[in-house]
3-hydroxyisobutyrate dehydrogenase (Quercus rubra), 336 residues
Amino acid sequence: MMSMAICRVRAALLSLSNHKSSLISSSSSSSSSSSSIRSFSSSQFESVGFIGLGNMGSRMVTNLVKAGYNVTVHDINCNAMKKFSDMGVPTKETPFEVAEASDVVITMLPSSSHVFDVFTGPKGLLQGGNLLRPWLLIDSSTIDPQTSRKLSVTVSKCNLKGKKDNLVIPVMLDAPVSGGVLAAEAGTLTFMVGGSEEAFLAAKPLFLSMGKNTIYCGKAGNGSAAKICNNLAMAISMLGVSEALALGQSLGISASTLTKVFNSSSARCWSSDSYNPVPGVMEGAPSSRNYDDNMVMYSPNLLCACTLCFTWLLNHSVGHLILGWAYLRAKMSQVG
C-alpha cells in the first residue's frame, strides 16, 4: 500500500509541470539580477534585520546575537519583541522600519500569505517602492516556490538606496530550514537555498551562525521546492514508521523494542531515530513532551503549511491521509 501511495504522489507531483513554463520565466527574470553582484565585504552584513520571532525565529535570532551580529527585530507579538528588547536587541514596529535599519533582512514566518504581506503589504519591506536599503532579503519560511519566485522577481525590479560598493540591484534568497525547534536552538539547522549563487556564498557565514549545513539548490524558488520535497518524503516515512509501530504493538512488541530493531536495521530513518512518534520512546521528541510549547507546529507528524498547498493534487489518491494532516495542521495553527 505504501509503494502504491508513493507512486500516486509521484504522479501527482508530475502534474505540477503545468506550472513549469511560467515559473521558469519568473526565475530567469530574477536570476538576471545576479549579474549586478560581483563582490561582497563584511560591511554588507553589519546590520541584520529579522522578522518573525516564533519558536524558530526567536532561537535563530538568539544565535545571530551570540555570533556578534547587530540584529534588529520585529514581530506582531509584543511579548516576543519584549523578550529581545529586554536583552538590549533593538525592536521596530513595522517590517519597513526593520528594512530601513538593515543591510540584510531575514524573514521566518508561518505561511506564504504572511510572507507576501510582510514584503508587499502596508508598511511592508517593499513599502519604499523602488528604493530599498537592504541589499539582501532572505526568506527562511516554508512556503510554495511560486511565491518565492514571484517575490524574487519583484525584489529584482527595485534599486538600492545609496551606494553599496558595486551593488545596484537588491537580491532575494529563499532559504527554508530543516531540523525543527531543537536544531534551531542548538544552531544545527540545514539551510536549502535558492537564488543567486554569489549571494548564497557571501551569506554562508550568516547561515552557519544559525545552522551547520548549507546546500545551494539552484535558481530562485528551488530552496522552497527542495523543502517541499523533503517534507513530503519525511511525512511518508513518518506514516510508515507510525503504522509499523502500531502493528508491532498490536502483535505484542513494545514500541521501544521495535524502535531498537528499526534503528539497527534497514528501517532506520529520521522518523525512527530522531523524532519517534510514540510517547516515551525518545526523550526530547515532541511526542514525549505532549507537544508542549507549540512544538507540534514543527513535528514531522504534520505536513508543513507549504506542502498543504498541493493537497488538492493528492485528494483522489491519498486524500484521506492528506486531509487528515491538513485538519490537524489547521487546528494547531489556531493555537500557534
About this structure: The chain has two domains: 25-220, 225-335. Residues 225-335 form a domain with the N-(1-d-carboxylethyl)-l-norvaline Dehydrogenase; domain 2 fold (CATH 1.10.1040.10).
